[in-house]
Amino acid sequence: MAAHQQRVLRTAYRLLGRIEDAQDATQEVFLRLLRHLDRVDGADPKAWLYRVTVNVCNDHFRRRMLVLEPLDRADPTPGPEHALEMEDRKRLLTEGLTKLPERERTAVVLRDIEGLSTPEVAEILGVEEVTVRTQICKARMRLAEYVRTRK
Length: 151
Prior knowledge:
Order of helices and strands: HHHHHHHH
CATH architecture of the largest domain: Orthogonal Bundle
Number of domains: 2
Number of strands: 0
CATH topology of the largest domain: Arc Repressor Mutant, subunit A
Strand content: under 5%
Radius of gyration: 16 Å
CATH superfamily of the largest domain: Winged helix-like DNA-binding domain superfamily/Winged helix DNA-binding domain
Largest sheet: none
Number of helices: 8
Distance between the termini: 42 Å
Structural class: mainly alpha
Helix content: over 70%
CATH class of the largest domain: Mainly Alpha
């Protein structure tokens, strides 16, 4: 649990946008792990945890409409204007994530934010790699459009 807790929490936070919701989701993921430990034995625990995290977050996201907080990534900034611009862009992107269809949001979070490879995302989502690439392409286009129209 200690080896994967931060990864699960970070992924849940990026999918749900609120730390409180992410903490609840993380707790649910590890409860499911304890309940189904026999299923994980022999399987790749990282892939299993990502798959369960995505499922728990999608269930949670469907139950609530969220107002997301900006991502907590630290950006090196040359000045206050740039910092404000970057913060606004992060806010818009985070809001845009909530507007994406569930599968596209999940694919783009796992691939672009979590840094997983396309084959890893495909395995976690149970789809072909070409499907992941298509979902990410659509998600990026929708996010770019969302940001462009909100500026």
